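Hi Y.,

Following your request, here is the sequence exactly as I used it, all 451 residues.
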Amino acid sequence: MTPSPSRRAILRVGGAGLFGLPFPRFLSAASSPKAHAKATAKAVIFLHQWGGPGQHETFDPKPDAPDNVRGWFGAAKTRIPGVVFGERLPRLAALADKLCVVRCLQHTMKNHNSAGYYSLTGVAPPTDDQRLRDSIELFPAYGSIIDKLAPAPKGVPTFVGFPHVIADGSVTPGQHASFLGKAHNPLFVGQDPNRPDFRLPELTLPDTLTPDRLAYRTDILRLIDDQSDLLETSLVARGVDDNYQKAVAMLTSPRFKGAFDLSKESPATRDKYGRTTYGQACLLARRVVEAGAKFVNVYFARAIGGPKNGWDYHGFNKEDPLARLNDLLPITDQTLPALLNDLAERGLLDSTLVVWVGEFGRTPRISSNGGRDHWPQCYCAVLAGGGMKKGFVYGASDRLGAYPTVGQARPEDLAATMFAALGLDPETEIADKLNRPLPISRGRPIAELFA
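Below is the corresponding structure, written out as C-alpha cells. Let me know if you'd prefer a different format.
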C-alpha cells in the first residue's frame, strides 16, 4: 500500500493528480490521522498542577544536600530500591512500584502564563512573557487535537475540563481549541464538585423540551437563546452552531449525564479521594473516563498561589511556604493514590494514562523570602497506567536538583508520549487559520517510558 505523503509534500508538489489521486481526495488522505503504533491507552487524565510543584518536596528530594537546598522535609523510602520521595508523600512512596517518574523535564519559560501554555499544549510560546494572552493564533489544547483526529463515540464529549479556568492575571492560553474551531472546545465544568449541590446545568433539559424536539436545529438554538447563561458557562454551548449535533447527543445521553452525579458514589469512596475540590474533581475524572471521554483536564487550582490555591510558594508578602506545603502535599498524597487505586480496582488503569505535572519546578536553593522561586530547568512528572512502565524512574538530576544529568525530556516530548499512547503519530499534521500544516507535536515519544 502506498503511504500517504505529508501535507508539506503535497504543497511542495503543488499540483493535482499525484499518485493518481485527484487533488481534493489527496488532501483528505494527507490530513487524516496516522497511527504511530498500537495504542496503549484509551483515555488520558491530565492532572495539571498550576503554580509549579517543587521537585525537592515531591518526587526528587535531596536529603543529603545542604539545608538551604534540602528544605523543610526529609525523604521517604519507596518500593523502588534507592529511590526516595518527599516525606510528606508516604502513600505515594508506598505506591511507587506502580508509577513511572520523569526527573529530567526542562524548558526555558520562567513565567506562569507562558510556561502554563507550554505545559498544556506541548508547544513553546513565541516569548517568555507573563503578559502572554490567549489568542486564536496559539496552539490548541491536547484534548482538542484528540477531538479533531480521534473523537469519542457519539453522545460523549472527547475532551472535558474542570473545575477551574486557570489564570495568572490574564487567562492562561492552551485551555481550548484555538484555531481548530469551537466545535473542538472542551466541555468545561466550572462548578465545584465538592459542593453538595453540584450538578451539570449545561446538560439539563427544561421539562417542556423533549429529546425529539431538541434534535431539531431550531429548537436547540432557541434553547441556547433562552438560556443565555449557558453561553457564559459552557464552551460546548459556544460552539454549538459549529456542531450542534454533538451538543444534542450529550444533552440526551443518560450515560454521560449520569457520570456527573457524584451522589451515586458511596461516602467511603468520596472520602478516599478527599472532600476537597481537587479530590472530588479527580473522582469525577474517573467517572467521565468510565463514560467514554478520551481526554480530561483536571486543574488543581484556579490561581497560582495564596490560601487554598496552587503551587507557587515563593514566600512573598509574608506568605508562609511551609503552611502552603502543609496544605498541598497531603491533598496530593491522598487524591493521586485514591485515583490510581480506584482505576486499578475497576480495571481501567491499564487503559487510562494518568499524567501529573505542573508548568515548571522550583529553585534548588531556598530564596531570601523563605520560599522557592520558579525553575523550569529541571522538574518532575509522574505517569501511571496506559501502557507505561511500573516502578520506573526516567532521568536524574544533579546533587542539588538543579539540572538533569541523565535523560532528556521537554514538554513537547511529554505531548508526543501522550499522543503515541493514544495511538496517534505525533507527526500528524493539523492546519491553522492560514492553512499552514503543523505537526501535533514537535517532540518525540519518550520510548523508555513504555512497558
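The chain has 16 helices and 18 strands.

Thanks again,
Q.
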